[in-house]
Inverse folding.
């Protein structure tokens, strides 16, 4: 399987993204980001390794994965693309404003005290 | 491939317009949300007037492993400042210490719209100039992940 076909699968794409962001991760760190079973994740890692999308180095008992920058060179820009950046940015702005609202409106977070005479918000 | 690439992003924020405007124009607040996960904002300057400077540096944090410490500055000028309504700037972004192939020239146009006490923010980004690799990335940027990958796959395949 060539690199691009290998990373067309959503879970494997997610692994590539994780590695692009983190640099190096052990197999279990990668598995920690998935709901699916460890073996399923290892299988994806195996495919990525065979497609030369990732490198594997061994350290003690651990297998450490990193991106093979060669075939993925063209993908680098894409991994850090604007869509990702703006989506994350707007999510962070949103949570910053929400947090602030919760802090300045303690009334709302204490609704269990049940002031019923106010208007429904 | 078209010369310009445009993308649009929208979000409804649960805060009044003046609050959202402030979050966008106060450098301390911008630094709080501008960087993606694992990225810090060591420098942030906003001179809020037409012709004024916008300068924001993103820096890769610990968790980004091999990229740790990499700085991605963006420097530009405001071309429109319409309080509580619209903010436009032209800027170039690049990877510090790397060549012009990492540079992306862009126009960012931000609109603020009141929705009964909430605020709809619309961001229009136009890439006016970029080298091959970022351009490939931008080509599909207004679409989802899959379309992007598909376009990129074709682009890479065509280069072989």
């Amino acid at each position: 399987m060539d690199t691009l076909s290998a990373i067309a699968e959503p879970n494997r794409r997610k692994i590539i993204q994780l590695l692009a962001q983190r640099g190096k991760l052990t197999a279990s760190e990668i598995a920690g980001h998935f709901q699916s079973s460890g073996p399923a994740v290892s299988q994806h890692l195996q495919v990525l390794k065979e497609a030369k999308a990732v490198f594997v180095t061994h350290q003690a008992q651990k297998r450490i994965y990193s991106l093979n920058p060669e075939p993925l060179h063209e993908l680098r820009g894409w991994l850090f693309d604007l869509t990702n950046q703006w989506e994350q940015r707007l999510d962070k702005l949103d949570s910053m404003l929400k947090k602030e609202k919760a802090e300045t409106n303690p009334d709302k977070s204490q609704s269990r005290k049940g002031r019923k005479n106010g208007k429904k918000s | 491939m078209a010369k310009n690439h445009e993308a649009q992003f929208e979000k409804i924020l649960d805060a009044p317009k003046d609050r959202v405007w402030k979050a966008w124009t106060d450098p301390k607040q911008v630094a709080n949300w501008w960087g993606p996960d694992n990225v810090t904002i060591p420098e942030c300057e906003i001179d809020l007037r037409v012709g004024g400077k916008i300068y924001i540096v993103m820096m890769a944090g610990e968790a980004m492993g091999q990229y740790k410490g990499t700085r991605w500055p963006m420097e530009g000028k405001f071309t429109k400042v319409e309080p509580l309504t619209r903010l436009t700037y032209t800027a170039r972004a690049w990877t510090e210490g790397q060549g012009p192939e990492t540079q992306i020239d862009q126009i960012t146009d931000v609109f603020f719209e009141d929705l009964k006490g909430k605020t709809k923010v619309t961001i229009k980004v136009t890439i006016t100039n970029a080298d091959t690799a970022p351009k490939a990335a931008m080509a599909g940027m207004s679409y989802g992940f899959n379309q992007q990958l598909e376009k990129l796959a074709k682009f890479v395949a065509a280069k072989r």
